[in-house]
Design goal:
This protein is an alpha/beta fold. It has 12 helices and 11 strands.
Length: 330
Amino acid sequence: MNRRHFRQTAFSAALPTIIGTSAHTSWAAEPFPVKPVRFIIPYAAGGGPDVQARVLSPRLGEALGQAIVVENKVGAAGVLAAQYVAQVPADGYTLLMGSNTHLIQKIMLPDLKFEPLGDFAPISNMAVSPTVMVVRADAPYKTVQDLISAAKASPGKMNYGSGGIGSAAHLGGATLVSLAGLQATHIPLKGSVEITASLMRGDIDFAFPVAATGIPQVKGGTLRALAVTSRTRQKELPDVPTLQEVLRSELAVQESWFGMWAPARTPPDVIAKIFFAVSKALRDPALRASFEASGSTAAPSDSPQAFANFVRNENTKWATIVKLTGVKAE
């Protein structure tokens, strides 16, 4: 047998094995996704994050080629949803709307049975939203410095309100008090919806509602905005400074963000496919406009790794803020 004939014979003999192996590999590596994907939202139906998820889900489903089923799992400030998703199979079919709230809750309550930095694989950020420092429209304070001067002139006489311990409004107010060296009392209300009414009654002197709540009240003439906690000024309030401009501290930049997390150990190729679908969906001009109408800005990450780095940096920052302010869970 010559060498050429030997090679042809050997290849022919191996061909069934190669084809069989290829077919088996193709069959075993089932493409993702082949069924609907569940998106677990830790907030009540009708709230800002829930609305954003429901606006995003049809576009995300179109990009992935499967339906996205939005499910609300409310309780313990987002902790119940996080604990649930951390325990499901890491196959990409159950995702969590993760946020800075999960970091803050774990920082304040270290014994919680989930690890934001260890139990999840970050996929992409989706949106960011600041709070707005507000007073009554007829209050004598025209600037943050006016309020600081008044608070220092009457130590312990001012109150600020929020929707609860550890909320964005609470941490915003506590940060101002700490950085400016003020003596002011935090008044936890039954919910963030009570902030405006409490300001109007004079029960509280200032507050930090989320932009979706505060900006409409400012534009309607009910409240006056003194600052925003975003890194840059808000398009809707171009003349209102950022709190960072006033206090000259990075800790004054406080934006709530909402991203997409998968359980840890989800395959990298699945993470990548979901990431590209999220990125595509968030480029939709109509979706971005919808987010802006609800007080948020679409903010997709550059990559899953970039989002993971962002989450770690945010965890460090919020830990510093909690330590600075002394905020403790009740």
